[in-house]
Design goal:
Blueprint lengths: L21 H8 L7 H16 L3 E4 L4 H10 L4 E3 L1 H7 L17 H25 L15 E3 L5 H11 L6 E3 L7 E2 L11 E5 L5 E3 L3 H11 L5 E3 L7 H14 L4 E5 L6 H4 L2 H12 L3 E6 L2 H20 L1 H14 L9 H4 L2 H11 L13 H5 L1
Parallel strand pairs: 1-10, 2-3, 4-8, 8-9, 9-10
Antiparallel strand pairs: 5-7, 6-7
Length: 373
């Protein structure tokens, strides 16, 4: 492909600044065309959702199975939290705080695990549809876009996406509302907030607050598709101030909001205010909304409650969980049939296809699950 043929869809990339030319991109692409089908498809899908839905809300997922449950429950996207990667899903097999201690490949490996689980769920569903074991009305879209945490220069991320020829969606996180330390003092955007003091490690102290968050957001806006600001509490006034400041200079800029598990929601808001919170901030332009650590908290409380009841009640406690699973089947929950859920029937079909239907190692037929569930 020549540089003359490299073009950026004007509507998709309206307002996006690139400090390089199409010639630079072509020079770096190489002559072998590699297709990144998942990234390309999911980026286009998420962009359409962000521009057609009132807002897209989702949860921080911790595993491939979590991602599949997102899809089954009807969510339309997935958030992958770096905090959760540090805590319980990193390639070092360690439990860390969110201090960039885990191996750099951890988040990409979790993305891969989620995509693989979603693809497997789709394969199982496709086979069941072909076999007449499922109706089209119950078909689920398993190809959910994933927005994943990553420490990356915005310009570098855009260049990498352009070289790969994918319309990657880049979300810039300011985190400046609570930030009090920065690594250097040469950025003009930071200078108004410098206190003149240094930490023992050599960091520069800055005045935290919404004004610094706005300054960062304005600096990031030309290079990102969405701007994310962390607030200290679920504060509509602060969210509105941030949104208005960004939109004054960048009208229509898409915004993202962490409905944070670090907030004590009931302490700050009434039940009605909590229920309407996401709708209210969506009106301000916060189109992507997520609970970063939902996987961590729900997984831990679920296991703690079962373990506590199991200690006291024995098998009665687990049987109640099983009955709850049965009760949710009418709503689309399918994991009670755990062998089917992970693809036992699918791989039986693979084995039978290879052996022309004569495989002796299939697992589902005659299993306790097929006979009791």
């Amino acid at each position: 492909m020549s540089a003359e043929n490299i073009s950026y869809e004007l509507k998709r990339f309206s307002g996006i600044k690139r400090d390089y030319t199409p010639e630079d991109v072509e020079r770096l692409r190489g002559s072998i065309k590699i297709e990144y089908s998942l990234c390309k498809h999911q980026s286009k899908k998420l962009w359409k959702l962000l521009n057609t839905e009132n807002y897209v809300n989702t949860l921080g997922s911790l595993s491939g199975n979590h991602a599949v449950q997102h899809a089954k429950a009807g969510l339309k996207a997935i958030y992958l939290s770096g905090w959760q990667v540090a805590a319980d899903a990193n390639s070092a097999g360690e439990m860390y705080p969110d201090q960039s201690l885990y191996p750099y490949d951890s988040a990409p490996k979790l993305v891969e695990s989620m995509n693989n689980a979603l693809i497997r769920a789709d394969q199982i569903q496709h086979m069941e549809l072909k076999d007449g074991d499922m109706t089209e009305e119950k078909k689920i879209d398993y190809m959910l876009p994933i927005i994943a945490d990553g420490d990356k220069n915005l310009k570098a991320a855009r260049l990498a996406a352009d070289i790969a020829d994918v319309p990657l969606i880049i979300l810039a996180r300011t985190d400046a509302n609570a930030a009090k330390l920065i690594t250097n003092d040469y950025d003009d955007n930071d200078k108004p907030f410098l206190t003149g003091e240094r930490s023992p490690e050599g960091f520069y102290y800055v005045k935290a607050g919404i004004e610094q968050a706005i300054s960062r957001g304005l600096a990031y806006a030309p290079y990102s598709d969405l701007i994310w600001c962390e607030t200290a509490t679920p504060n509509l006034k602060e969210a509105k101030k941030f949104a208005e400041a960004i939109h004054e200079k960048f009208p229509g800029k898409l915004l993202a909001y962490n409905c944070s598990p670090s907030f004590n929601w009931k302490k700050h808001l009434s039940d009605d205010e909590i229920a309407s919170f996401q709708k209210e901030i969506s009106k301000m332009g916060y189109k992507f909304q997520f609970i970063t650590l939902a996987g961590f908290h729900t997984q831990n409380i679920a296991i703690f409650e079962l373990a506590q009841k199991y200690k006291k009640e024995g098998m009665s406690a687990y049987s109640k969980i099983q009955q709850q699973e049965f009760a949710r089947e009418k709503d689309g929950y399918t994991s009670v049939k755990h062998q089917r859920e992970v693809g036992t029937s699918y791989f039986d079909a693979v084995s039978n296809t290879i052996s022309s239907g004569k495989s002796s190692t299939t697992a589902m037929k005659g299993s306790t699950e097929s006979e009791q569930f």
